[in-house]
Description:
CATH class of the largest domain: Alpha Beta
CATH superfamily of the largest domain: tm_1862 like domain
Strand order of the largest sheet: 2-1-3-4-5-6
Number of helices: 12
Largest sheet: 6 strands, parallel
Structural class: alpha/beta
CATH topology of the largest domain: pyruvate-formate lyase- activating enzyme
Bound molecules: iron/sulfur cluster
Number of domains: 3
Amino acid sequence: MSKTYFLDPFGCAKNQVDAETLMAYLNDAGWVSTFSPEEADIVIVNSCGFIEAAKRESINAVLEHKRNGKRIVLAGCLVERYAKDLFESLTEADVIFGNKDLSKIASAADAALHGARMQLIPLPTDDNVRKNRPLLSLPGSAYVKITEGCNNHCSFCSIPLIRGGLKSRKIEDIIDECQTLLDRGIKELCLVGQDIAAFGMDSSSRQLLLTLLEALFCLNGNFWVRLLYLHPDHFPPILDFLKKNGGGRFLPYFDIPFQHASKSLLQKMNRKGCAEDYLALLDRIRDALPSSVIRSTFLLGFPGETDADMETLFDFQEKARLDWAGCFTYSREENTPANSMKPHVPKRVAERRRSLVQEKQTVITEKQLDRFMGQKFDVLVEEEVDDGLYLGRMFAQAPEVDGAVVVHADTALRFGSFVSCKITARAGFDLTAECIL
Ligand code: SF4
């Protein structure tokens, strides 16, 4: 009788790769995954420990599964940050498992199944990613984690406390993983890390993202490479290469978290940029790649943020004309430098500023999307929503965070494949298209 588990994933794309890797090791050890917790012998909560709201969400999941009588392994970033406190206080979590060596998960699962209550916090291992793993993304797409940890130490961020300093994976390991994924029919490789712009800076003190892209250029096949999380203060020297070799594979899509535009506030965040620097970077990118799509992130309510800082940000938004932006309110995180900074911005003020920036961005995003009207693009088909009606994404839309393309097709489309489409309309952040076969 096989042992069964349900994996409950939380957090970011990097943590999703960890969840997939956990599943690969469990499956190797004879465990079988289920689609619902009810069917499973044990539940593995792969937690997020980044900010208050995310921590609460992971802990509530543990409490919920325990209420349903499940044996629980609590894994992930929350454990890396609070292992001892969790073991002492969250008794609902039977086994507490750290994420530095995911290959040890089967021991934790067996212990939970046999009624143990314990902590298992493995020491770091070299390459903590399984290239051949179940994928939790929609068909045709996969996240490829190229770095772990971060050396930027933004004053509000707990990631370096959780994931440690920057550790870049070996290029040959990444290429090997990409080839394996392509052989499995994957069409989109999303390169992720806390800051992929810093790729290689730990091992060679120079940026190696260009070298990695050159190696990806040599692989055969029709597929996309998407770059997510590029720190604006050290944007890598990749534009000439993309201009020369972009041709459909390397998407002119850049996720560049600016966080704010006020120089004084960015300095307090331990970031070097300002509105002028960031506008100059956007000009450089758009000069090299005029069809570029830029996503960013803004953090509102950081200690000391003033109305003047907000005016600087609103003005920056006007000039930057970003395609997409996610807006978040600042979360006080212990052991981060910002935690002791003052004056605090009241939550309701932070929330009002967040919604003002988001409202302004919504108008800009819709205007930016209108430029695709009547044009033809490849769309990665992900799911069917009704007869002859499919959902997919074009180059300008990253998984999970941007809008989608609603595709009308007279013939059946294969999930995880590219189809050529003509954009016919926009509804909010989604585009509508006719399939051109
Ligand atoms: S770049 Fe800054 S915000 Fe991003 S993970 Fe690193 S320290 Fe955190």
